[in-house]
Amino acid sequence: MGIHILTLCYLIASVTFILGLKMLSHPTTARKGNLVAALGMAISIFGTIFLFEHRVDGESAHLHNLPLIFAALFIGSAIGFVSAKKIQMTAMPELVSLFNGMGGACAMLISVIEFYHYQFTATPSPNDVLYLTHKLSTLSILAITSGLVIGSISFSGSIIAWGKLRGVVKDRVFKGQRALNMLLLIVLVSSVVILVGITPSVSYVSTESIDPLNAISQTFQYISNLHIYLFYGILALSLIYGVLFVFPIGGADMPVVISLLNSFTGVAAACAGFVYNNQAMLTGGILVGAAGTLLTILMCKAMNRSLLNVIVGSFGGDAAGAAASAEQGHFKEVSLSDAAMVMSYAKKVMIVPGYGLAVAQAQHICNELESILEDKGVEVKYAIHPVAGRMPGHMNVLLAEADVNYEKLLEMEQANDEFKTCDVVLILGANDVVNPAAKKDPASPIYGMPILEVELSKMVIVNKRSMKPGYAGIENELFFQPKTSMLFGDAKKVLQDLCTEIKAV
């Protein structure tokens, strides 16, 4: 009876995961979608704890160590709740990377534990020279090893991504790195194929009953242990590849990397679900893996990058190109009063949010500026680049937090069609996503990346703290164009003063 109820719990959880993901596609239902998916996860967790049964010597057995399980649940939930509650929006990408890394680590540890479980649960008789252990099916060892590789890469790669976003890990590029990464990937795939081929037929040798002088027995023992050495060798190589894969990636490309690593964790979780024959785990992993993969492909398209380049770790361009940041001319500043005057009498204003807006926590005052301008008859819209910020959808989440009308958020293609009809474009902390070098300079590390073509408007006002280059580390020639004016200062303070000036016009 308990088994049938548990199956129903997994079915309910799977349905809630699908519904939750569907609801996440729109800002008005996203919060509710999170709660629905979380409810399904809770049902599957507690259903497993209280209803799971397995057969031992023909008798039914349940989970043991419930106090340890609940202690772990409490500690993990408390850490997750406090971390998510206290995190600033600017640090959200770091938290996402860290949590994603923990998911990869879980999948990795599951593979290690299950491989050990399959190989060493049975104890040989002292009289047996060779003892065949519980054999793995080809699909089982493939699922375990795939979860090990993908989970390990996701774990180590996410930790490096977390360090880069936090500023404690710098880009590391050396000659031949792309070739080394490709070689490591080939070795990993080859090792997995070999391991899958030899594991179902390996034997365990009872060392107590082997004559050390018996060469045949020694040979059997070596062959039987080879798959174990290979398994842990794959684990080490996967962790190393995850580090080398993320190290050279440029800062402006981190949203794509985070999305890709997220899809890795989903696939690793699906592999664990296959190993345990757990429908909820399998469904959740497939959904995360598929959604993350599709998002990665869409973002690669938005960045005009190859997914293969992401995988081999050459994403982000040449470091030498990124270092080129010499000023290309003279810029001009605009006063608050002049900026307020121009925007007050404009017919259409487009706001381009960037990481600087998130750093200043200025999304609410930005929404207030929008309201003030609309009261004066000005049409206000927002231009959102797919990779603005530090993670996928960063600007959408930021503006949704300030209750900005979702209908006013234009995707890149829509915004580029409307820039030519804009009187003023106000750029708030965005840099690389509006850099014309992406279209004009083949030597630039962001060359080929589709950008917001703000230079098509009549006037561009750029709010920045300083002339310091953006996350990609390159100069922005937009700042030196005749129609561009710089408005220096913290985004929140500047917008507050701008609101006051516009009210007075």
UniProtKB/TrEMBL annotation:
Organismal lineage: Bacteria, Pseudomonadati, Bacteroidota, Sphingobacteriia, Sphingobacteriales
Organism: Paradesertivirga mongoliensis
Enzyme class per UniProt: translocase
EC id: 7.1.1.1
Chief place where the protein resides: membrane
Top-level taxon in the UniProt lineage: Bacteria
Membrane topology recorded in Swiss-Prot or TrEMBL: Multi-pass membrane protein
Transmembrane segments: 5-21, 33-52, 64-83, 95-118, 138-162, 183-206, 226-249, 256-276, 282-300
Subcellular location: Cell inner membrane
Catalytic activity: NAD(+) + NADPH + H(+)(in) = NADH + NADP(+) + H(+)(out)
Name by which UniProt lists this protein: NAD(P) transhydrogenase subunit beta
Record bears the keyword Cell division: no
UniProt keyword NADP present: yes
General function of this protein: The transhydrogenation between NADH and NADP is coupled to respiration and ATP hydrolysis and functions as a proton pump across the membrane.
